[in-house]
Amino acid sequence: MIEHHVRVHPSADRLAREEQLAWKLAEVATATGAPEADSAAMAVNRVIDNASVAVASLLRRPVAVARAQAVAHGASAPGASVFGSAERVSPEWAAWANGTAVRELDFHDTYLAADYAHPGDTIPPLLAVAQHTGRSGADLLRGIVAAYEVHVALVRGICLHAHRIDHVAHLSAATACGLGALLRLDTGTVYQAVQQAVHTTTATRQSRKGEISSWKAFAPAFAGKAAVEAVDRAMRGETSPSPVYEGEDGFLAWMLDGPEAAYTVLLPGPDEPRRAILDTYTKEYSAEYQAQAVIDLARRLREKAGPLEKVRSVVLHTSHHTHHVIGSGASDPQKYDPTASRETLDHSVPYILAVALEDGVWHHERSYAPERARRPRTVALWQKITTVEDPEWTRRYHHPEPEQRAFGGRVVITLEDGTVLEDELAVADAHPAGARPFGRQQYADKFRTLAEGLVAPAATGRFLDTAERLAGLSPAGLDGLFPVVDAGAVAAYDAALPKGLF
């Protein structure tokens, strides 16, 4: 790996573009070749994973709204497919609709380091452009692996959340790079696209604070759509704000650490294999990733705890990130509000821990149902749960070796009679270092479970077979990555939506 040192430069420095981070990212993209077998296999897993959660969210309002907006923007042939629709649309709008569907349930892959990431959010725009431009499955795989490589590098090297900047700024850069690899664009074109994408998708983290709205699902889709448009513009010879990261009025100077900002981003050399996708991990449960191990831990503790009415307090000792983002350290009263939105509850580890202790299972719909959140005994237990930051868990969260990182914590339950029960879990059971890591079978089972009722068994089989053959798919074969769903159920749901401008 090559260390790229990034700092702010005054305009008078005339920083050569070859020394700029955006150029270095573009070089990673344009030098990406056919992925190694294990990286390609993991990319197939993530295509299956994305389709699983997209299908499961088709009858949810934000996804239906995004789908309706996309369908209003049809394209001349060939266009791109939209989950839940037979229509072909312009690729940037397919990226919008499919990106929202993938993100809505907070149920696909993750990477956590200096910042947060859902690198699977790069796949919808890549697939849309691959369809529209007649690229093959091998081209799509190359683009996915390149996008993951860039996304993971940025998340390792540059922290956005410390400055309350939403993580989609890294997503847009990674997507532009993935598109460059997919289309085999030259480095200069990808460089310009990265700069426009980053410049137009820098937003605050208010979308993940307080009463969290449906924009949480739309935000990555917006970044993907912006990246597609940035690539189109750059391909036409247009330039972008430069240097977008290092400029004296740029991203680092005014959005992050200020004029003295300095970061180190590790990037692979031209001939190094692109393996960052193997450091990422998916979710077994529909909840913020730092809650995955907590759900497994709650399932383990519930039998030991006995009647939960006798619990005096529950304290989760965990990392800085977990405590301040989804725990009581966020100081968001909404995280304890029984009337809060689903988006808020899936970012409330006190709520998640309460329900998991009571039920011993987690369901992407039933666990968030309003009647479930308002159950009096659940509310009573929920109010007894707090989190605290433990420096040791923070250290483990940031461990330099991926296999040593810990995203869980230690739960201490104190009963009314003074009895103390405690247990800890470093990573979720489904994590690559967990008790039962996800493999191809688990990804396929996740699809079957989430698609039940909307995708017929025969269509499920066809989709899984197509996905597993991704490396050899022709351009027309990419259509098979959109499973055939119950069109009547989708149409009936869509018909009830209010109308907008389009």
TrEMBL record:
MmgE/PrpD C-terminal domain sequence ranges = 285-466
Q: Name one Pfam family in it.
A: MmgE_PrpD_C
Region annotation Disordered: residue ranges? Answer: 320-341
InterPro entries, sorted: MmgE/PrpD_sf, MmgE/PrpD_sf_1, MmgE/PrpD_sf_2, MmgE_PrpD, MmgE_PrpD_C, MmgE_PrpD_N
* Domain MmgE/PrpD N-terminal, residue spans: 20-262
Spell out the family assignment given in the record's similarity comment. Belongs to the PrpD family.
PANTHER family to which the protein is assigned, alphabetical? 2-METHYLCITRATE DEHYDRATASE, 2-METHYLCITRATE DEHYDRATASE-RELATED
Q: What is this protein called?
A: MmgE/PrpD family protein
In its UniProt entry, the species of origin is given as Streptomyces albidoflavus
